[in-house]
Amino acid sequence: MKELESRYLERLSELYPSIAKASMEIINLQAILNLPKGTEHFLTDIHGEYEAFDHVLKNGSGSVRRKIDEVFGNTMSSRDKQTLATLIYYPKEKMDRIKKTEDNMEDWYKITLYHLIEVCKRAASKYTRSKVRKALPPEFAYVIEELITMRPEVLDKEFYYSSIINTIIRIQRAEPFIIALSELIQRLTVDHLHIVGDIFDRGPGPHIIMDKLIKYHSVDIQWGNHDVLWMGAAAGQRGCIANVIRICARYGNLDILEDGYGINLLPLATFAMNTYDNDDCKQFALKGVSDMTAVETILEMRMHKTISVIQFKVEGQTIKKNPGFKLESRNLLHKIDYEKGTIEIEGKTYELLDSNFPTIDPKKPYALTKEEEEIMERLERAFLNCQKLQEHMRFLLNKGGLYKVYNGNLLYHGCVPLKEDGSMKSVRIYGRSYKGESLYEVLESYVRKGFYAVDMKEQERGKDMMWYIWLHENSPLFGKDKMATFERYFIAEKETHKEKKNPYYRLLEDEKVVNGILREFGLSETESHIINGHVPVKTKDGEKPIKCNGKVLVIDGGFSRAYQKETGIAGYTLIYNSYGLILAAHESFESTEAAIEKESDIHSDSVVVKRVMDRKTVGDTDNGKDLKEQIEDLKILLAAYRSGKIAERL
């Protein structure tokens, strides 16, 4: 052990080769510990709504507007503040409109630059110069640093700064400079972004969201069941592939696959048109689609039915291959009486709303036809070979996981599976039992095996486990006794549609249960919070996102347009800054165009969930713990230098 410590100190001495260097680093790190903690931004259940997501990211759930209010107070009108905020969100687009109405652009540039510099100073004030310097756009790095940094040696500061601004305007660089400042303010306002699951499905632009996240300066992702579904599809799991296509078809978003990811759906479309040529497919009507022609609509409805039937078949095959999943009750095709058009479920017979199944052989209901097999083989290759999709999934793997403990808070998408009495539910995974944190860890390990395992058996298990995570009652990302997809399509009786939630959702107000979950993940019962999404909070029915006296924050409030009638709002987001936790409830986002033209920011009602007595510093964060450990190591190095154990590298 001593030999290992000596080798470590030798390596550390290469970075800090003298007493002076090591001492200076201790001073620098200690200074960082006393800075205010950076702002964390939490979003969940985005479900492909890229315009609303992009706007909330730009405005930091109101953080940018709060910075403007802090800087200008009552010295600027509310209207002017909103114009400035809109400029920061969409600098190029807003300037294009301003130029059409503004008579004296030179004066406008000058006033605007002064305003942006002041906001930028406030946004940068909680960071070290080094961190701000790294965030600066290269083209304007030196000039911006001069403008936002106090220089005590400059006697006439006003003349110094105005001469810089006048030069920027004179050489016609005002507009790119304004864009650079605006983007810097956005960058500095939020230090770290948490996505608490479900980027994919329902909305039209998950691929656009992923492209933006890949470029974001600091982000982590807790996978949702819809994300893991897409990961399974990218790994080639057929049940996942069929579900992904079915959901895209259901919401009229097949162009995500065709245009966004370049996946060829023509063989599926051709087969659907031929197979269901005389079928109105009314049970497979699309949701929330208004800009399709009649021909496009009927084609997608037929594709919707085609892939749904294929899904029930390939899922049946997966269930047979994995008896340990104990999902035999979800195989329903063999329970259909194809002559009578009925199905028997739990001893009761129901009439089917649609009994046209030309591709199902009643004797072998889970067998694909030759054409269906060819389609699935093509789709499997397409998903596996799609470079953009694989890049997005690798990003999810690198930046994500099933849960995260961050700065004393526990983040996960769905639920911790519990028994009726609130104790952790034990779940069998490939012959071994797991519960609580160990369940999350083993499931996450299998997701990664589905992509990276060398052992082909383990890789196949990993692929099938992603499908399991998508819909199993014991999955912490689903947490219902069944996914009643078949029943909702084919049976009118609502009793068959009911999906019973895990006791977790009923026990969220039970402090004993919540404390048990926090302890399970090694967190404080008094200081920590659980932050999760998955099940929309029905605000219109009086449901509250803040539960268990503020220990649990459920922030899925309907970001997806498909949920907004159910929830009554357009989503919750959460801000955790140095002063505490702020929950924002958002109204519906009209459009990016309206946000620019009408300056219609997303209206948000903010609630302070927790305000700290003493402002949180970097020293109170996980990063602060790491910095303190570095300081202790450097102190040991100093002692080694001074004792002569290690020689300075002078």
Summarize the entry for a quick read.
The chain is of the alpha/beta class and 650 residues long. The protein has 27 helices and 17 strands. The longest helix has 28 residues, at 294-321.
Describe this structure in words.
It is built from 27 helices and 17 strands. The protein is 50% helix and 10% strand. It is α/β, with parallel strands linked by helices and 650 residues long. The longest helix has 28 residues. The strands form four sheets. It has a seven-stranded mixed beta sheet. The radius of gyration is 28 Å and the shape is globular. The model has no long low-confidence stretch (mean pLDDT 90).
Could you estimate the helical fraction of the residues in percent? Answer: 40-55%
Low-confidence stretches: none
Please tell me how large the radius of gyration is.
Answer: 28 Å
Structural class: alpha/beta
Average pLDDT across residues? 90
User: Please, how many helices?
Assistant: 27
**Mass-distribution shape:** globular
Main β-sheet, spatial strand arrangement: 7-3-2-1-15-16-17
How many angstroms does the end-to-end distance come to?
28 Å
**Number of separate strands:** 17
Biggest sheet character: 7 strands, mixed
> Which strand-content bin applies to the residues?
5-15%
